[in-house]
Amino acid sequence: MDGHVAPIDPWLVAVWPGMGAIARIAGSYLVARLGAKRIAEIAPEPYFDVRSVEVSSGLIQPRELPSNALYGWKNPGSGPDLVLFVADEQPSSGALRFCDEVLQQALDLGVRRVFTFAAMAAPIRPEAAPRVFAAASRPDLLDEVRRAGVEVLVEAERLDPEARARIESLFREAQGDRSKALELKAELDRQGVFATFEDRFLDLFKQAD
Fold it and tell me: What is the spatial distance between Cα 28 and Cα 191, in angstroms, rounded to a whole number?
């Protein structure tokens, strides 16, 4: 535990980068804002590969594998303690085994409830009020969500991670090169998700004006 007192009956908040790295940014903010202390880490092997290198003055620099750290926070009030899991990257292989290891670490720390969150693409105008959706693993947890005033996600988008990554890559390319918009539109149509991304797609052309 790196010399720190372990949380008691904590809740786990698990985050890793996804669209816009929103979840990781939020998780890192929580760690810093709460002053949570690192209490454990999951070894990156065999879940991560070196996929790029940095070069400085012609020399290839040593490349570290991503960090996957767990942080503990003792609640000074009456609420639950927290364990926050923050990963630098999503695993490049063995994703299910990686999740199992995260959950096993959580069980070893006495975690009794798990939360995770991410950004979700939705047809929304920039000036509109942000919305929060939730899904749960049990009906009684959905009742808690509703009582908290959070909107329940009725049906999740059926995009596999590879298709999502390709769409996000094409959006980035289209921001700098509008000719890529045709390829992006074709991909959105092929995946049957143009309606979901329509406002974001049209905003590419507003930015160009």
Answer: 33
